[in-house]
């Protein structure tokens, strides 16, 4: 398990390298968790279902393999709805931001 230090939280919140962005079939891209949250709030159920179903876990895989957040990836894997996934991401973004604050 990765310890979430201020540095790790900032990295998880930041943009991923250009070669690691999440691409949608319509050529839209996601570069960070905040963009994932907004995309989940706005995408159609059909798009969500394409990327997250019994055989695919695209959002979970990207969060785990690229962002490096195994905890959020597990939550996304079990998200049954787009709204639930968006809430998980939004809550995690808020928590990560709280870890970057000067204490």
Mean pLDDT: 93
How do the SSEs run, as a string of H and E?
A: HEEHHHHH
Strand order of the largest sheet: 1-2
Radius of gyration from the CA trace? 13 Å
Q: Specify the overall morphology.
A: globular
**Stretches with pLDDT under 50, minimum 5 residues:** none
Largest sheet: 2 strands, antiparallel
Strand content: under 5%
Q: Share of helix among residues?
A: 55-70%
Structural class: mainly alpha
Distance from first to last alpha carbon: 23 Å
Number of domains: 1
Number of strands: 2
* Separate helix tally: 6
Describe the structure.
This protein is mainly alpha-helical. It has one domain. The protein is built from 6 helices and 2 strands, in the order H-E-E-H-H-H-H-H. Helix 4 (58-67) runs antiparallel to helix 5. The mean pLDDT is 93.
Descriptive key words:
103 residues; globular; 6 helices; mainly alpha; two-stranded antiparallel sheet
Task: Please sum up the structure shown.
The chain has 103 residues and is mostly helical.
Give the arrangement of secondary structure elements.
Layout lengths: L5 H8 L8 E2 L5 E2 L2 H10 L2 H7 L6 H10 L2 H8 L4 H19 L3
Antiparallel strand pairs: 1-2
Helix pairs in contact: 1-6, 2-6, 4-5
């Amino acid at each position: 398990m990765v310890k979430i230090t201020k540095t790790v939280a900032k990295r998880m919140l930041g943009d991923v390298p250009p070669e690691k962005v999440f691409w949608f079939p319509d050529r839209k891209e996601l570069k960070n968790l905040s963009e994932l949250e907004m995309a989940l709030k706005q995408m159609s159920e059909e798009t969500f279902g394409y990327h997250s179903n019994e055989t695919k876990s695209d959002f979970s895989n990207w969060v785990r393999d690229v962002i490096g957040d195994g905890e959020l990836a597990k939550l996304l894997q079990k998200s049954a709805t787009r709204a639930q996934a968006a809430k998980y991401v939004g809550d995690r973004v808020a928590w990560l931001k709280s870890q970057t604050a000067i204490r």
